[in-house]
């Protein structure tokens, strides 16, 4: 209790900052939990995944991996590329996380797209003990995700309703993320490369190898068109 | 998949995911990136999002009736909603509802 009192100000500010994420994570987490149990997987896999993986898109795609009985190496490679963007987030956090000591591993674990976006846009309040403020912010955000997905899984496994078509939430998520990417990139080539690689992979390899094939093909094409894309600005 | 395999897969995804997040803290102490990485960082996320759209509808049989029209309509709905309202929760939520209506009632 005294521990919580000591960091009262950090907790309060972190909570206030985290409110927009609360909406997003609880709703999306709920959809994830619902989708997971709609394929008859155990409800407790939702909290386990949200505690130990904690990555939105990857957890949705993971359901497909389970359905396909994908091999561990394929899963590892696909997860790596799927989350490659996260490797660049840390770069802007190197300095900020420097003095966070034993909290640092968790702060790094908590660097989701949304938490990263928050941390880079908010200004640091000099009055706050920063590492604890960051820690509580990450903790709040993850708790929304864990609670949302657990509730979704529990509701989905106790109430019987027709979930046919719910899997489209994954497609919708990627459509929205693509639009956001296009807004900031304003360059069609990477999208065309993604589409062409996917169509080729769909046409020529079995569907359980489609993702890996498309990823490698697209990387190849990206480098073929590298000069053109970089000149394009 | 039996539960043990699923737990193993979750462990692998957890480790790989943490690896992608911890990577710069392990390997980049300076802020300068090699130009190849700057290029990948800038353009690869867009490419992978596009691939994931296709990946998520890969089991639709476009050569059989109704030729993937329901998927295309729902994707179109999601795009229009997102361009108009710019709120990703609304776009995902209503886009999914529109697809559920299409597959359940039509």
Describe what is shown at a glance.
The complex is a heterodimer of chains A (233) and B (106). Chain A folds into two domains: 2-158, no CATH class; 187-232, no CATH class.
List keywords for this structure.
heterodimer; A: 233 residues; mainly alpha; 2 domains; 13 helices; B: 106 residues
Protein model, in words:
The complex is a heterodimer of chains A (233) and B (106). Chain A is mostly helical and 233 residues long. Chain A has 2 domains: 157 residues, no CATH class; 46 residues, no CATH class. Helices cover 74% and strands 0% of the residues of chain A. In chain A, α3 packs antiparallel against α9 and α11 crosses α12. The model of chain A has no long low-confidence stretch (mean pLDDT 90). Helix content of chain B is 77%, strand content 0%. With 106 residues, chain B is an all-alpha fold. Chain B folds into 2 domains: 32 residues; 73 residues, no CATH class. Chain B is built from 4 helices and no strands.
Strand content of chain A: under 5%
Q: Which outline of chain A best applies? A: globular
Oligomerization state = heterodimer
Strand content of chain B is under 5%
Order of helices and strands of chain B: HHHH
Radius of gyration of chain A: 20 Å
Task: Say how many strands of chain A there are.
Answer: 0
Number of domains of chain A: 2
Helix vs. strand class of chain B:
mainly alpha
Weakly predicted, low-confidence segments of chain A = none
The structural domain count of chain B equals 2
Output the number of helix runs of chain A.
13
State the end-to-end distance of chain B: 32 Å
* CA distance, first residue to last residue of chain A: 54 Å
Q: What global shape of chain B is seen?
A: extended
* Main sheet makeup of chain A: none
- The H-and-E topology of chain A, N to C, reads as HHHHHHHHHHHHH
The helix fraction of chain A, in percent, is over 70%
Mean pLDDT metric of chain B: 88
Q: Please report the number of helical segments of chain B.
A: 4
């Amino acid at each position: 209790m005294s521990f919580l009192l000591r960091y009262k100000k950090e907790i309060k500010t972190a909570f206030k900052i985290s409110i927009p994420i609360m909406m997003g994570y609880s709703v999306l987490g709920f959809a994830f939990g619902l989708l997971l149990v709609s394929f008859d997987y155990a409800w407790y896999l939702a909290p386990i995944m949200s505690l130990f993986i904690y990555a939105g898109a990857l957890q949705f795609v993971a359901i497909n991996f389970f359905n396909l009985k994908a091999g561990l190496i394929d899963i590892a490679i696909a997860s790596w590329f799927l989350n490659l963007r996260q490797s660049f987030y840390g770069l802007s956090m190197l300095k900020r996380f420097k003095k966070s000591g034993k909290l640092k591993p968790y702060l790094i674990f908590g660097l989701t797209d949304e938490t990263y976006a928050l941390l880079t846009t908010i200004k640091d309040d000099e009055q706050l003990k920063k590492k604890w403020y960051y820690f509580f912010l990450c903790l709040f955000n993850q708790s929304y995700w864990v609670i949302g997905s657990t509730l979704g899984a529990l509701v989905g496994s106790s109430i019987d309703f027709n979930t046919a078509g719910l899997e489209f939430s994954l497609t919708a998520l990627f459509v929205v993320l693509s639009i956001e990417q296009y807004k900031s990139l304003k360059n069609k080539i990477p999208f065309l490369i993604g589409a062409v690689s996917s169509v080729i992979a769909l046409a020529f390899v079995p569907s359980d190898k489609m993702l890996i094939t498309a990823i490698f093909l697209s990387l190849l094409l990206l480098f073929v068109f590298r000069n053109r894309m970089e000149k394009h600005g | 998949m039996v539960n043990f395999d699923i737990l193993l897969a979750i462990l692998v995804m957890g480790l790989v995911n943490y690896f992608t997040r911890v990577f710069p803290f392990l390997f980049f102490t300076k802020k300068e990136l090699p130009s190849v990485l700057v290029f990948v960082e800038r353009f690869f996320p867009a490419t992978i999002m596009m691939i994931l759209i296709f990946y998520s509808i890969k089991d639709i049989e476009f050569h059989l009736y109704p030729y993937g029209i329901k998927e295309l309509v729902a994707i179109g709905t999601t795009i229009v909603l997102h361009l108009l309202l710019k709120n990703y929760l609304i776009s995902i939520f209503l886009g999914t509802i529109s697809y559920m209506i299409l597959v359940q009632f039509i």
